[in-house]
Amino acid sequence: MIEIRDLSLAFPNPASPDGRTVVLRDFNLSVAPGEFIAIVGASGVGKSTLLRVVAGLVPPNSGTMVHAQSGDLRGRRPYGLVFQDARLLPWRTVRANVAFGLEGLGLSRAERRRRAEEALALVGLADKAGRWPHQLSGGQRQRVAIARALAVDPDLLMMDEPFGALDAITRQSLQDELLDLWRRTSKTILFVTHDIDEAVYLADRVILLAGSPATVRSEDRIATPRPRARDDSAARALVTRIRDRLSDLMDGGGI
Ligand SMILES: Nc1ncnc2c1ncn2[C@@H]1O[C@H](COP(=O)(O)OP(=O)(O)OP(=O)(O)O)[C@@H](O)[C@H]1O
Ligand SMILES: [Mg+2]
């Protein structure tokens, strides 16, 4: 469904001898429809940049990206994005924040409202539609951000450390809600996280990036059916292996 081929991207960097930082060089990744992929790697390795390029927010210097869309695209967008902070507009209600991404798609106001409410129901916040962002908890704000991303009915949901700022309990419950959402909507998910436990608990495949430029250091497929036990011994062993690889990369200065 998504084929990333030989993607390269350099940012201008006056401090570097050649005047640029190469973040991606000939980067390849294939993602199957409905797959849940977690991307882990050291800070600065290029995880957010990769998502930004896939989302079309940053044009690559070279490479191709094929994204086969499913179904009718009227009133939809190909991607939904969720960041570490919810980035809600404080002067808009929860419903109007979710409807924000639907503007410019040729939908009537009533239809935008209906779609926003449907997305809020998906994340269990139907009763909070009329509230203001400051009246919500951090976890609820993050659920609104997920609803906003889902409202445009994207094939691909990209999440950049979406639960990174939440406490452990809220984080675990949002992980389970996300899995439930994923099962019900069959979206393809690219999920960036620093938390290897989270990656192994959630994903079908965990991709460890090394840099720089970013390359795939390892790829682990996790076939354990869901719901998964958080203390599963095979999962624990995999978490340790990925952590060891990550710390080897950092010790070697290869981050
Ligand atoms: N707009 C930009 N201009 C110049 N350099 C940038 C820009 N955005 C990112 N970079 C550089 O690209 C590299 C990768 O950054 P990126 O934000 O993708 O890392 P990351 O893996 O998401 O890190 P973190 O885990 O800390 O979020 C870094 O060296 C960063 O300084
Ligand atoms: Mg990042």
Automatic annotation (TrEMBL):
UniProtKB keywords: ATP-binding, Nucleotide-binding, Transport
Entry-linked SMART domains: AAA (SM00382)
A GO molecular-function annotation: ATP binding
SUPFAM superfamilies hit by this protein: P-loop containing nucleoside triphosphate hydrolases
Chain ranges of the ABC transporter domain: 2-236
Superkingdom, taxonomy of origin: Bacteria
Alphabetized PROSITE patterns for the sequence: ABC_TRANSPORTER_1, ABC_TRANSPORTER_2
Keyword Transport: yes
Entry annotated with the keyword Transport: yes
Family membership noted in the UniProt record: Belongs to the ABC transporter superfamily.
Designated name of the protein: NitT/TauT family transport system ATP-binding protein
Species of origin: Nitrospirillum amazonense
